[in-house]
Amino acid sequence: MWVGDITYLPRQGWFYLAVWLDRCLRKIVGWDMRDTMPEDLVSEALCRALLVRLPAAGLVIHSDQCSQYTSTRFKDLVAQHGALQSMSRQGNCYDNAHAESFWSRFKAELLDGGSFTGLVEAKLEISHHIAYYNAERRHSSLGYLAPTTSKLTFKQCPSCVQLS
Fold first, then answer.
1. Environment class of residue 2 by beta-carbon count within 10 Å: exposed (0-12), middle (13-18) or buried (19+)?
2. Are residues 146 and 139 in contact, defined by beta-carbon separation less than 8 angstroms?
3. How confident is the model at residue 158 (pLDDT cuts 50, 70, 90)?
4. Predicted model pTM
5. How far apart are the first and last CA of the chain?
6. Model confidence at 138, in pLDDT bands (50, 70, 90)?
7. 60 CB-contact burial (10 Å; exposed 0-12 / middle 13-18 / buried 19+)
8. What is the DSSP secondary-structure string of the chain?
């Protein structure tokens, strides 16, 4: 299962970062960032993840109900890859808790109370942080291993087994 969400990052205004996170491996599998929040922000991030990861049909793609995830382009992209779209229930913010929890740590580690000056700087900093997050940052849910070094499979993942 992949969970997606969008967050705001500070500058003189905001940047918008969309991320797809492998819920089981705690790995960032796709992301996109812009200085606006167009409909295709999450679709572009998902395209990148799908092209790199090549998941099997039946992958569950979970998000909240914001308009980017209900757009025709996004729904078509999910269907083209044989994935299944899942969305949070209306008014229930806890349905996407994995993504929300991810953001709280990600922002604290990346920003440390600061902000970005420009889009190029922000993208560079974020790409470095994502590389660190996936390859080096240890997660208690993975036995204190980094996502890229974990050998956890879908059948071993406690949060995924509950969905089976």
1. buried
2. yes
3. very low
4. 0.85
5. 11
6. confident
7. middle
8. -EEEEEEEEEESEEEEEEEEEETTTTEEEEEEEESS--TTHHHHHHHHHHHHH-PPTT-EEEE---HHHHSHHHHHHHHHTT-EEEEPPTT-GGGGHHHHHHHHHHHHHHHTT---S-HHHHHHHHHHHHHHHHHT--BGGGTSB-TTT----GGG-HHHHTT-
